[in-house]
Design a protein that fits this description.
By secondary structure, the protein is an alpha/beta fold. It is 61% helix and 6% strand. The strands form two sheets. It has a four-stranded parallel beta sheet with strand order 2-1-3-4, with helices on one face. The protein has a four-stranded antiparallel beta sheet with strand order 5-8-6-7.
């Protein structure tokens, strides 16, 4: 290829990767639904995006190192302490039962359907156990099932990535070792591969633990150090023994997520951006290597394999995994209808199949196109049917707003009661033990103490919360929490206004409109409440009497619309107005939330 052809090909791959993800985000569909067809079409129409021609022998090693970075990032999300309560039992069962049953079923079917050798069938079965959060997360964000369902499926996807990566690497080395004569030699080669990968992961994790704990590194430099360590360790392991770097990478991520004494930042925007770019580039590049000719004799058998995996294997796994739990029948059925394949399946198929083809494994050339068909079919099927199925089963979240009120002042409790009287499901959180006791004593639902810490992580769930109201007496906390949560939660985040002329560390300089009209700052609300004002709910759309301050409007469909310093909603027929009542009509101080 000429220099201009290489330049055009690389530029087109980057544009297709980012453009596909942008289009998918606007369409609110999993990125795979756009990335795979884009890469496949580009590969079929032009030779400029063929990574084998662009990169030659460097393509396979680059895929291996890119997958190592993805698996390291997945491993960082495996803080096993986050698996607790009723979700632990279901998720753990989905992992080990799902991995075992799917692997065995896919292996047994691959041989007769695709005409593979036993070694290639075992490899394909190991590859297809992986689901992945890069597919499940965006799909569930669009469907919005009940929060318990979403937590279970997101955890399964986050955990199955590294589990599947480890399994795939181990099976690959087992298949390669099976070509050697003698059982002792096969076992020895397999153990050597696993040992090199685990040893590399331990060394890399120890190095990163020391650097991140004792060397002052900023976000960008700290992420760069992690990237260099992962790539360096994975490359070193691969040099010693093929594809042991994947085991090392996921071991490093899991170790750092669970080692004591290391406080990794919950948000990693630089690493997240890098991983997102790698995923896009890999999918476009890998799908471009799948030619129409390679699919000619694979599509129909692979679709038959998909049918068995979707309609028999996954329902069986879900039934066993949820047996004896408190999940109702509708939620169990939805778990049975959600198992798309993603980036790790495609990447490991590309990484392992080329090596197995080179070693003369029968049917290994069909591993990548078969995996491609399974990914496209499962993502398309679940992407198009997940929302209708969830609606038919009645497991969608209610459309009504669910506000989280952060704060424990007396007027905040009064506001929670008023919002509940307007028909909203209110959740409260406070940091001080005394405030938490008052919330519990008032009979208001109290979120767990670690809720906001969990919510600071990318993709974390806020118990189905649709809007966060930061109402504490600490203006700087409200401002900082607002800045953090706006980047990590889908719902709206609002905060109280700091007093005019304040000299706080952050609050006076934070942009964005604050809650309520001008003059209703935090100290002013506290002053009026101490003087006898109360929060109450009035039917709309009658004009508010003099002295009444509109705080929120709860629409007839349950949507909560706040008054901010930039906008004021108008109550309509059927709406409920949540207002600050003056002392004259609020009733005595011991009757909060009184009505005029």
């Amino acid at each position: 290829m000429t220099e201009n052809q290489v330049m055009a090909g690389l530029g087109l791959i980057v544009v297709l990767a980012v453009g596909s993800q942008l289009l998918a985000s606007r369409l609110r569909v999993p990125a795979l639904l756009v990335l795979l067809p884009a890469g496949f079409t580009a590969g079929a129409l032009t030779d400029d995006v063929d990574p084998n021609r662009l990169l030659g022998q460097a393509f396979s090693p680059m895929v291996s190192l890119a997958v190592a970075v993805i698996l390291y990032d997945s491993g960082l999300g495996l803080d096993l302490g986050g698996l607790r309560g009723h979700t632990r039992r279901v998720v753990v069962r989905l992992l080990w039962i799902g991995t075992l049953v799917t692997w065995v079923a896919a292996t047994l079917l691959a041989d007769p359907l695709l005409g593979m050798s036993k070694q290639a069938a075992v490899m394909l079965g190991a590859i297809l156990v992986v689901s992945g959060p890069t597919v499940v997360g965006p799909l569930l964000d669009f469907v919005r099932p009940r929060e318990r369902l979403q937590r279970i499926l997101v955890w399964e996807g986050a955990l199955i990535d590294p589990v599947g990566g480890i399994l795939g690497a181990l099976v690959f080395h087992g298949v390669v070792a099976s070509q050697r004569k003698g059982a002792a030699a096969q076992v020895g080669a397999f153990m050597a591969s696993a040992g090199i990968g685990l040893a590399g992961g331990v060394v890399g994790a120890a190095l990163l633990w020391l650097l991140l704990r004792y060397v002052p590194l900023g976000e960008v430099l700290g992420t760069t150090v992690q990237l260099a360590a992962v790539v360096g360790v994975a490359a070193a392991c691969d040099v010693l023994r093929d594809d042991t770097g994947l085991i090392a990478a996921v071991t490093m991520g899991m170790a750092l997520a669970n080692l004591p004494g290391l406080d990794l930042p919950a948000r990693r925007p630089f690493l997240d951006t890098l991983v997102s770019m790698i995923i896009g580039l890999l999918f476009v590049s890998i799908s471009a290597t799948v030619t129409p000719h390679s699919l000619r004799h694979v599509v129909l058998p692979a679709l038959a394999l998909v049918a068995v995996l979707v309609f028999a294997v996954r329902p069986l796994v879900a039934a066993v995994a949820t047996y004896g739990t408190d999940l109702p029948r509708q939620e169990r059925l939805f778990v049975a209808w959600m198992d798309p394949r993603g980036i790790v399946a495609a990447s490991t198929a590309s990484t392992f199949s080329a090596t197995l083809v080179g070693k003369g494994i029968g049917g290994a050339a069909k591993i990548l196109p078969a995996t491609f068909v399974v990914i496209v079919a499962t993502v398309t099927l679940y992407g198009l049917t997940a929302h209708p199925v969830a609606r038919r089963l009645g497991v969608l979240r209610p459309a009504r707003s669910r506000p989280l009120l952060v704060g424990g002042a007396a007027w905040v409790l009064d506001l929670a009661r008023a919002l509940r009287s307007a028909g909203l499901d209110v959740l409260m959180w406070a940091g001080l033990p005394a405030q938490r006791e008052k919330i519990a004593a008032a009979g208001l639902p109290l979120a767990p103490g670690e809720l906001l810490a969990d919510a600071s992580g990318a993709g974390a769930e806020l118990e189905g919360v649709t809007v966060v109201l930061l109402l504490t007496d600490e203006d700087d906390f409200n401002a900082l929490a607002s800045m953090t949560l706006r980047q990590t939660t889908e719902g709206a985040v609002h905060r109280l206004a700091a007093p005019s002329g304040a000299h706080g560390v952050v609050a006076p300089y934070t942009g964005g409109p604050a809650l309520f009209g001008s003059g209703l700052s935090r100290p002013e609300l506290n002053r009026r409440y101490e003087a006898g004002a109360r929060v109450g709910a009035l039917p709309g759309p009658a004009d508010l009497p003099a002295g009444h301050e509109l705080l929120f409007v709860v629409r007839a469909d349950g949507l909560l619309v706040p008054v901010t310093q930039a906008s004021r909603p108008d109550p309509r027929p059927g709406d409920t107005a949540v207002v600050l009542l003056p002392q004259a009509v609020a009733g005595p101080p011991d009757t909060p939330g009184g009505q005029p």
